[in-house]
Amino acid sequence: MRYLPLTDTAREEIKKIIGIEDVQDLFKSIPRDKSFFSLESIPAALSEPELIADFRSLGRKNSVGEYLSFLGAGACTHFIPEVVSYLSAKGEFLTPYTPYQPEISQGSLQAIFEYQTMMSMLTGLAVANASLYDGGTAAAEAVLLAVRKSGRQRVLLAESLHPEYAAIIRAYVQNLPIELVTVHADKNDGRIDSGDLQAKLNGETAALVFQSPNFLGLVEDSAGLAAAVHQHKTYAVQVVTEAMSLAYLRPAADFAVDIVVGEAQSFGLTLGFGGPYLGFITASEEFLRQMPGRIVGQTKDLDGKRGYVLTLSTREQHIKREKATSNICSNEAWCALRAGMYLATMGKEGLARAAADSHLNAAYFVRKTDGLAHVRVVYKKNFYNEVLLEIKKGTADDFLAALKKNKVLAGVSLGWFTPTVTDRVLLAFSETHSREDIDRLFRLIGEYA
Asked: CATH classification of 65-77+348-448, choosing from 3.30.160.20, 3.90.1170.10, 3.90.1150.10, 3.40.50.880?
């Protein structure tokens, strides 16, 4: 699209037509103390060497690399092969627009198709797309998908679902005739209370939304949950905030889970201040026509050559119009491209090894802390890579502050999400941690006593 700037003559004519003397008159409704017309505060331009030196000076203030981090709770650090960053930074990958025209978008379409294929392989479910923003909004879209498909308006949310995901779901449906009911967790093992689930299931329930591994790091009994809800013709929706677990645990399809959604940041995306993230959704084939976003498919052209197209585009701007399943108006193609590159680079063996190491490092920490009196691992089984630690001396904030002084970020306080919980910390482990790192963490925990 060409950019045709207005001439001075055209600008003057427009000002006469709308009756203003100056362009700033258009902004009179903005209070003077909230408007910024002066450019005097902008410093003079720097030369290239000066600019580079300035950025280097700023960079030296960043001390994040000096810290050993065990932060998690939905955002975990994993190793990213350098080739992923190198290739994904190429201009042809960064600049393409939404691939509406297949004849000029074959590269983008194939990249999305390959990503969809790999996500389907990881979950065992037939259908996947690459159009969701992040894990939280993906979970909300799954709720809407289950409601549309079932025709029911009642949804059960597991108490062990990530609190931020639950909040996003509530925000999505607050003005819709959808009833959300919380299913409590068993205090003894941190997983869904099967008795409470049975009591709250009925013929009006569209879906049970549960997280596995759940917010406390515990693997839920997906098979038992799916079997229980299917007795009421209710859908089982699994949320995954740690995508690396997909390469370690059995695929959700093996347990008859209907929909798997979540966050794929662990597949090649670096951590930042809120993103970018990559929401994913996979489902059994019966949901194909009700899926949000877009789905890329493989076909053949008139000459029999393989090609890729947007098989389904479900936005209101497309053929669905008022029957659109979602108002998602962007796609995560570049993030999906990075995830696809990461998965292809790691390969099945590399991904499985990284996923296993994440669990084994958590298990090593659990064994190490078994003899400490001033802290306690709350749940010593059914965990994947996150461990809940009870602090018996002082508060969780005291504990975290003490270790931070030694440049160790020893997890996330549950008080961040539930202010009344002041004695529990959630620690995350990944393949990036060495045994020496965990020994250092253990030593500092011992010194905290």
From this structure: 3.90.1150.10
